[in-house]
Amino acid sequence: MTEGRATPGASELPRLDDRVLETLEGSRGRVAFSGLRRLLGAHPESLSRALHRLEREGLVERVDGGYRSLVPRPPSTADAATDRRAIARVELPPGASPSAVAARLSGRWFGNLRWVGAFERRREHLLVWARRDGTGTVLLGVEPTALRVYVREGESGGDPSEAEDAAYELLYHAVEAIRSGGEGRPSGASLLAASPVDPPRLSFDN
After folding, report:
1. Which of 38, 39, 8, 34 is nearest to 22 (CA)?
2. Calpha distance 74→55 (Å, rounded)
3. Which CATH number applies to 16-69?
4. How many Cβ atoms sit within 10 Å of the Cβ of residue 38?
5. Do domains 16-69 and 84-196 have the same CATH topology?
6. Closest Cα to residue 131, out of 153, 116, 146?
7. In DSSP terms, which residues pair with 113 in a beta bridge?
């Protein structure tokens, strides 16, 4: 890790370098500079210096779309995205490529949602946006046959119902982006509430 780390009790908050590395290690993917700034509440110049230090030490590398950690993760390390709660899903149109869909949505801003970065998952592409008011994040899982939106459990601040509204907003914008991008018009696309009982079916068709 980085040299000169603060000893326990020396500060209420860890060094920015440590917080950056912890965020990148937890993502298993790439996080945009602006995404790191929002997640950590860091000043741009301070964040830039922290990233340069971590790059020099070989702990972080800059990649297309942001930064990622070079620190190996043990197989037993808990996934940072396990604290998410599913809100809704929508089926992808037949023939749609999950990789192409993820690439089309990555880096975009939707309404009050600002791009953070992409997590690498075993069976899905997990894309993350931060709410503009700073009250939390919304995640979009691009699966082989569907899109699924999540909110993080335990995030401080904000109304839980507003977080769910943001998740539905993201799903709506994602569907519209796929339609306009030529991924096939999901004529039968339906929004399914994430629920243990049979959810209502709401059509996205015009």
Report:
1. 39
2. 21
3. 1.10.10.10
4. 20
5. no
6. 116
7. 110, 131
Segment (H or E) for 178: helix 160-180
Q: Which two tokens stand for residue 118?
A: 């992409």
* pTM beyond 0.85: no
């931060």: which residue's tokens?
Answer: 130
Task: List residues bridging with 147 in a β-sheet.
Answer: 90, 142
- Residue 193 is predicted with a pLDDT of 42
**pLDDT class of 45 with cuts at 50, 70, 90:** very high
pLDDT band per the 50, 70, 90 thresholds, residue 78: very low
CA distance 58 to 2: 10
CA-CA distance, 152 to 166, in Å (whole number)? Answer: 12
Work out the mean pLDDT of the chain and round it to a whole number: 75
Q: What are the residue boundaries of the structural domains of the chain, listed by start?
A: 16-69, 84-196
Instruction: Given CATH 3.40.50, say whether it is the number of domain 84-196.
Output: no
Is residue 26 within 8 A of residue 117, CB to CB? The reply is: no
CA distance to 9, 162, 183, per residue, from 187 (Å)? 58, 29, 12
**How many CA atoms does the CB half-sphere of 81 hold within 13 Å?**
23
Query: What does the CA dihedral 171, 177, 180, 181 come to, rounded to 10 degrees?
Result: -130
